[in-house]
Write a structure and sequence with these properties.
There is one protein chain. By secondary structure, the chain is of the alpha/beta class. 41% of the residues lie in helices and 10% in strands. It contains eight helices and six strands; from the N terminus they run H-H-E-E-H-H-E-H-E-H-E-E-H-H. The chain has helices at 3-20, 25-37, 74-77, 85-96, 134-150, 162-174, 208-211, 218-232; strands at 55-56, 62-66, 117-121, 156-160, 191-192, 199-203. It has a six-stranded mixed β-sheet. The chain starts with a helix and ends with a helix. The mean pLDDT is 96.
């Protein structure tokens, strides 16, 4: 059995566990409430309203780590960064970089495939107001650990935002990586190299709050992905 097959089996098992998880009552209540009330534009659609598994290539060299599913994006569609403005911005960049088969991500069955990249989140459920408690992040941390263990070819983690950066640092610490003290702070373009661990890169999150204000531009995200690709070759 090949490494890629081993990784695929582990990721498939993880996806089942993520989608069945009900460990955080506040998040479960919110994701299901959003699915019941729905946004007017999606009132005819059935929402996923479960934990959202990661998505991408089991042989990925680059892992993109975000915060949490969007209430009417991944919580609706069941695929990471799919069905909202953040996903539109991210997958367009992945397509420009040659890591995605198409520039749009609308639904789980839209034919999108990633090559050399994998997209996931620090938390697998949509949180009220996009705010998570430390306990909720801690409960999701084992999912990230299992995911990164299955992604054996991963050489770079791109942390999309400060919370993703902190989640990545916490994972590396638990894995025994010799992190510097004080711990490096998040910043767009920040880098952390630790022996025996993937390179950690910082990037502003592709939320509309960042992209519509120009805090994160397509060129800025392209540059981070180019750096990740150069390192992962």
């Amino acid at each position: 059995m090949t490494v890629a097959t081993d990784g695929s089996l582990a990721l498939a098992a993880l996806a089942g566990d993520v989608s069945a998880c009900r460990a955080c009552p506040r998040l479960v209540a919110w994701r299901e409430e959003v699915a019941r009330t729905r946004r007017a534009a999606y009132r005819e659609q059935a929402y996923w309203a479960r934990g959202v598994p990661g998505f991408g290539d089991p042989a990925a060299r680059i892992v993109l780590l975000g915060l949490a599913p969007g209430a009417h994006g991944a919580n609706r569609t069941g695929r990471m960064f799919t069905g909202d403005g953040s996903g539109d911005f991210l997958y367009a960049a992945l397509h420009r970089a040659g890591l995605a088969s198409q520039a749009t991500s609308r639904a789980r069955d839209d034919g999108l495939a990633l090559s050399g990249a994998y997209v996931t989140n620090a938390c697998r459920c949509a949180p009220p107001g996009n705010r998570l408690t430390p306990d909720e992040l801690a409960r999701c941390a084992p999912f990230l650990a299992r995911e990164l263990a299955a992604l054996r070819d991963a050489q770079v983690i791109v942390a999309l935002g400060a919370i993703a950066w902190s989640a990545a640092l916490a994972h590396l610490s638990r894995a025994g990586a010799p992190l510097p003290r004080p711990r490096p702070r998040f910043g767009h373009g920040a880098e952390l190299r630790v022996a025996g661990a993937p390179l950690l890169l910082g990037c502003y999150h592709p939320s509309r709050q960042n992209t519509q204000t120009g805090r994160l531009t397509p060129a800025m995200l392209d540059a981070v992905l180019a750096r990740a690709e150069a390192y992962a070759r």
